[in-house]
Amino acid sequence: MSPRDMSAEGDPDAALMLRVKEGDTDAFVELVDKYKQPVMNLVYRMLRDATEAEDLAQNVFVQVHRSAHRYRVSSKFSTWLFTIARNLSLNEIRRRSRHPADSIDAPHPEREDQKWHQYEDHKAASPPDQLLQGELETKIDAALADLPENQRMALLLCRQDELSCEDMAEVLGCSLSATKSLIHRGRETLKAKLKPYLRTGAWYETK
User: Fold this and answer.
1) How far apart are CA 189 and CA 197, in angstroms?
2) String of b and e for 57-89 (b: at least 16 CB within 10 Å)?
């Protein structure tokens, strides 16, 4: 897909990245603070290993910093960032397929009584719903893990408010129609597996 013409004026994050390109460390910190949790959520659900996900999320931002000198505004910053996260996630999945190892549902490194995925920024739930919400998240994680990589990535990208369907297609490196097909097939599979846990709406809303 050819990059869409953009200017930093329409994307504050791209403007920040241009400042990073000029050596502005405060701008880099601002981008990391904004995107560290979304990136962590995505790579955790791709890898299902909290320790590996933490390392890989850090590597995403290391690569962002290392690539700053050649950064240009050819797409939204978030599209560029999640493309890096996607590529590193798939590289790690393929590396692990060549060197199989047991995936560890590791605790959060600073709070051993909490699993990492419990730190995701979920919508607030009322106390009676918290137990069901935790059970649903566990079922969602398991159902996502069974999806093909491209479908899983497409559904995870749907959770990023910054990304349109066109942005997701660019991250995935496929056509808009193929992206919509991946999303549709993934949603249908999840709905079938999660039917007992879902009420009216699906976990992934249509863009």
Assistant:
1) 14
2) bebbbeebeeebeeeebebbbbbbbbbbbbebb
Q: What is the DSSP letter of 108?
A: E
Q: What is the pLDDT of residues 48-107, one digit of tens each?
A: 888 888 999 999 999 999 999 999 988 899 999 999 999 999 998 888 777 665 443 444
Residues contacting 99, CB < 8 A, separation 6+: none
Give 81 or 139, the one with higher predicted confidence. 81
Contact 48, 141 (CB under 8 A): yes
pTM listed for this prediction: 0.72
* Residue type for position 197: Y
Which range has the top average pLDDT, 7-16, 27-36, 129-138, 142-151?
Answer: 27-36
For helices 12-21 and 50-66, angle between their N-to-C axes, nearest 10 degrees: 70
Instruction: Give the burial class of 126: count Cβ atoms within 10 A of its Cβ; 0-12 exposed, 13-18 middle, 19 or more buried.
Output: exposed
What are 160-198's pLDDT values in tens digits? Answer: 888 999 999 999 999 999 999 999 999 999 888 888 766
CA distance 156 to 168: 10
Residue 108 forms beta bridges with which residues? 111
How many angstroms separate the CA atoms of 136 and 203, rounded?
A: 10
DSSP state of 39: H
CA atoms within 13 A of residue 109's CA, in its CB half-sphere: 7
